[in-house]
Amino acid sequence: MSRHVRHVIAAAILLLGVMIALPARAAVVGGFDFDRAQVSVTGLQVPWGFAFLPDGSALVTERNTGRVMQVRPGQTPVAVATISGVSASGESGLLGIAVSPTYAQDQWVYVYFTTASDNRLARFRLSAPSTQNVLLSGIPRATVHDGGRIAFGPDGMLYLATGDAGTTSNAQNMSSPAGKILRMNPDGSIPASNPVAGSRVYSLGHRNVQGLAWDAQGRMYATEFGQNTTDEINQIVAGGNYGWPTCEGTCNNPSFRNPIITWTTAEASPSGLAFANNTLFAAALRGTRLWAVSLNGSGGSAGASAQFQGQYGRLRAVAVGPDGWLWVGTSNRDGRGTPVAADDRIIRVPPAGVTPSPSPSPSPSPSPSPSPSPSPSPSPSPSPSPSPQPGGPCSATGTVQTQWGNGYVVQPVTVTNTGTSALSGWRVTFTLPAGHTLSGSWNATLTVSGQTVTATNQNYNGNLAPNASTTFGFQVTRPTGNTATVSGYTCGSP
């Protein structure tokens, strides 16, 4: 055998070994294509919570600065509010944020933050951020275990997760709001339907909850930091006791509810939580990964896999955006990470089947200042929108993702260029059932004529190469009990 042939064979064997050793592609997990993840926002300072406005932009809290930033993919974050009275040290500071489900009508933004004396819940309007309406104060504070996640549930109630503030007995003390998940009306008052009359306590026995989410059946879940051995995700029920400080992880006590899944503290330290496509996504701080937990029919775990392991560092926040993408925030400047120059960042993961446009690099120059409050709802057009024009074939499909008694959200509506040449703009029309009215939208401009709705692209998502896709979404108000149905999607160039 010649030396040349031996070299060729050796090279082939080496190449085969490299190919075998390469890790498998993450492919699609929980309905999202992690191989197409994009860094969409950079330069944040310890982002803690996400909440989305009707225009599709996100409000992001910065824990240590007390600022609320408005972010859009590929653009420089803009400070739109600074919360007065924030005292940041250790794990405390400006934490959770939520936008009113009826933001188009009331413009309320809710925040949870630490002061020099307590943790408190307040709401304000972007048009007057210095005017705070404190809804709940006196929640024990500390430099550790402040909890902090706030979210509106599918029942329209506001939920607040608190930590034990370093005093473990708080978690079982019904007179203390610490170590609990609290449930209240949007104005902070106590709902008559709470498990204990006259109390905001919805569940107890928590050490430090930083993530809340609901599945498609309305079941509630929460992440839980363990002390030394076990981190958890729990399915939360009204009046449930989750065992802290008597035990962590699975408890051999019928008085306590067991988690649906556990990890070691090195694998997780789970913070933010989101749900999509029958999967819970938990952002892990110490674990430096995103856990994807598939659910079975009863809401238990059907298995878990880790994404982004070690790729972006500590992960704090995760949410499904109105664009249909999964948004993930890093926490590498919180004093426990190893930041890179771009930190902290927001990474976006597209839904499976959506071909992202070229990744928008965050702009080095400031983007135009946003309006403090978007217009409430689309104004009706005076005449029916013209039918789609030929010249740029495209398709549109929509999915009802979330629904409640008198409303529902359709997202994503996926617009795909099915032609052989690039599109420089698109227009989608569809029909709402009688009595259903549009109450919000994002990533498109919507106009209404009767029950016909016309959506046109924004300036940042109109250009589509052949086979490329983009998404938008909208919210609808309906008579209670009516079926959530949207029909007749058609797509064309404007």
UniProtKB/TrEMBL annotation:
- CBM2 domain ranges (all copies): 387-494
Q: In the record, what terms sit under GO molecular function?
A: hydrolase activity, hydrolyzing O-glycosyl compounds; polysaccharide binding
* Entries under SMART domains matching the protein: CBD_II
InterPro entries, alphabetized? 6-blade_b-propeller_TolB-like, CBD2, CBM2/CBM3_carb-bd_dom_sf, CBM2_carb-bd_dom_sf, Glc/Sorbosone_DH, Quinoprot_gluc/sorb_DH_b-prop
**Top-level taxon of origin:** Bacteria
**Signal peptide stretch:** 1-26
Q: Where are the residues of the annotated region Disordered?
A: 331-400
**Spans of biased composition, class Pro residues?**
357-391
- Entry keyword set: Signal
Pfam families in the cross-refs: CBM_2, GSDH
Which terms under GO biological process does the entry name?
carbohydrate metabolic process
Q: What is this protein called?
A: Oxidoreductase
Q: Which organism is it from?
A: Herbidospora solisilvae
